[in-house]
Write a structure and sequence with these properties.
The chain is α+β, with helices and mostly antiparallel strands. The chain has 15 helices and 16 strands. The strands form 4 sheets. Strands 2-6-7-10-1-11-12-13-14 form a 9-stranded mixed beta sheet. The chain has a 3-stranded antiparallel beta sheet with strand order 5-4-15, with no helix packed on it. A two-stranded antiparallel ribbon has the order 3-16. Strand 8 and strand 9 (150-154) form a beta hairpin. The chain is elongated. The protein binds adenosine-5'-triphosphate and magnesium ion (MG) (2 copies). Residues 10, 206, 223 line the site of one magnesium ion.
Length: 502
């Protein structure tokens, strides 16, 4: 049976600029249809493309962050394939300007990690090769109105600058592809070159999938187009792998076709157009000169103004802190575990939340981290909330942790208080502790009585402890905590139980 599974992704990342790739039209998401369209975007005769320098800088920046080589001279090409298929009307001009012969950045590498193990505590490092990054135009959006049998077109997105990142088929399952795309998304956001909001279409993924028998060359790929969520990406790839294996095992053939993921059924389905079978037709773009960037100021030819040129070294020097470095810094600064640094960085807003809690409490970072990654995040995930939607603020959590740190409540009572805080927004920890009488019980007489009752009713356990099995003491401690709803002072209880089981 086929053992090799390959996934190669093409990621379309909308460049975060105020204007389009070749025109001065503004870029915006929810503007009224066709309100962000210049004569060039609408392909009126006599209009010419003017390259947006910001887009070039973004592509260079992204290329450098992904360890690509930057081509100081690259070319623009027209892709005329679109004329023949359903995208035809999405490109007014009848072609898309892209980079086919020589793209701006090539031969890079994206490093990402998977969390594995029963407790998600094994960090597995993986890499995927980046074949190239090319600059290209986004298409318009066509909407078919079945009732009136007409196609409507919105050109707001037409001509917006995209970076297409083409990855080698180095991934072998949906989980890997999902982790790689999440890392890419974090890198693009840190760079500021793409906002990476997938639901707004700023990051769209085509997943190429094939399977092959061990020792044999890569199988025929299918291409699942335009996936706009990381969760769906993983599901689409895993479905497609299994579908291809089933086809081959039944003696069938996998066709090179484009498919779409249907999130309702969880299946991939063939797209009607036979785009995959069409031969691509490219020609050099006659209206644009080669795209030239320079290594540094010293390499500028005479007569070229440094302020007009794109300088690779200058962009390299200004690269911001990338997620992998941020994780290392968190591990070093706070003494937390690497897997915790992943959870913190991968969850939007969680680093900021964690650091805000630290500012307001004397509790050690290593003790705070579990509260943030287990209690808080667990609650948010369960309720399907983002960190910014948390009902518990960093300062409210800090107050709770401080009360625990000062010995006013036990850790299990603190967890009960936390649960209550997630339910009743606005109530402070102190308020809940008083209201539900969750404060620490450290009244020696009261604890003596409870301990005595537990000891009297568990002769077997007491016998075990007396014959040297000291671990059984924990069971008795648990029983005392149960009686006090987790409020008993654990240090005191231990001392009392030790005395009574001598
Ligand atoms: N056998 C294979 N199995 C899985 N993935 C593959 C295989 N062969 C190629 N790929 C992946 O397919 C993608 C090819 O993308 P590329 O942009 O070069 O061309 P395309 O898909 O033909 O054109 P378009 O950009 O119009 O979609 C790459 O991500 C590559 O890694
Ligand atoms: Mg491609
Ligand atoms: Mg493709």
């Amino acid at each position: 049976s086929p053992a090799g599974r390959c996934g190669g992704l093409e990621v379309h990342a909308q460049i975060n600029t105020s204007t389009k790739l070749f025109s001065a039209s503004p870029v915006g998401f929810s503007a009224p249809p066709n309100s962000l369209v210049s004569f060039f975007d609408a392909s009126l005769p006599g209009t010419l493309p003017v390259l947006n320098k910001q887009c070039v800088e973004a592509a260079v920046k992204t290329g450098l962050a992904l360890h690509c080589s930057i081509n100081t001279k690259s070319f623009f090409d027209r892709n005329t394939t679109f004329i023949k298929n359903r995208y035809a009307c999405s490109f007014q001009a009848g072609y898309q300007i892209t980079q086919q012969r020589r793209p701006i950045a090539v031969d890079g590498m994206l490093t990402y990690s998977l969390l594995r193990g029963k407790k998600w505590n094994q960090v597995m490092r993986k890499c995927v090769h980046i074949k190239q990054i090319q600059l290209e135009q986004d298409s318009g959006k066509s909407l078919h109105d079945d009732v009136q049998s007409q196609t409507l077109i919105d050109l707001n997105r037409a001509g917006v600058g995209l970076m297409e990142l083409v990855m080698e088929p180095d991934m072998c399952c949906g989980e890997e592809a999902a982790a790689a795309v999440r890392e890419l998304q974090l890198i693009l956001q840190a760079l500021g070159t793409c906002q990476g909001n997938m639901s707004e279409g700023q990051l769209r993924v085509d997943a190429n999938v094939s399977v092959h028998r061990p020792g044999e060359p890569l199988g025929v790929r299918t291409e699942v187009k335009n996936i706009n969520s990381i969760r769906y990406l993983a599901k689409a790839i895993d479905f497609e792998i299994q579908r291809q294996i089933d086809v081959l095992q039944r003696g069938g053939t996998v066709f090179n076709e484009t498919r779409a993921y249907d999130s309702k059924s969880g299946e991939t389905i063939p797209m009607r157009d036979k785009e995959g079978l069409q031969d691509y037709r490219f020609m050099p773009e006659p209206n644009l000169p080669p795209l030239v960037v320079y290594v540094d100021e010293a390499s500028l030819p005479a007569g070229i103004d440094a302020s007009q040129a794109v300088l690779v070294e200058k962009i390299k020097e200004a690269l911001p802190e990338l997620p992998s470095l941020k994780r290392d810094r968190l591990v070093q600064t706070y003494g937390i575990l690497p897997e915790h640094s992943y959870t913190l960085v991968n969850e939007d807003g969680l680093v900021e939340f964690f650091e805000a809690v630290l500012k307001a409490t004397t509790k050690e970072p290593r003790k705070v981290i579990g509260w943030v990654t287990n209690e808080l995040l667990g609650h948010l995930k369960q309720q399907d909330l983002s960190v910014s939607q948390s009902l518990v603020s960093p300062s409210a959590l800090a107050e709770l942790l401080e009360l625990q740190e000062m010995g006013h409540i036990s850790s299990s009572a603190a967890k009960q208080v936390f649960q209550e805080m997630t339910r009743s927004s606005g109530k402070t920890a102190l308020h809940i502790i008083q209201e539900q009488d969750l404060g620490l019980v450290s009244d020696s007489d009261q604890l003596h009585n409870i301990c005595q009752r537990v000891v009297d009713s568990h002769p077997n356990e007491v016998h075990a402890i007396r014959s040297g099995n000291k671990k059984v003491l924990n069971k008795l401690m648990g029983l005392v905590q149960k009686e006090t709803k987790g409020r008993a002072d654990p240090v005191l209880v231990r001392t009392i139980l030790q005395e009574k089981t001598l």
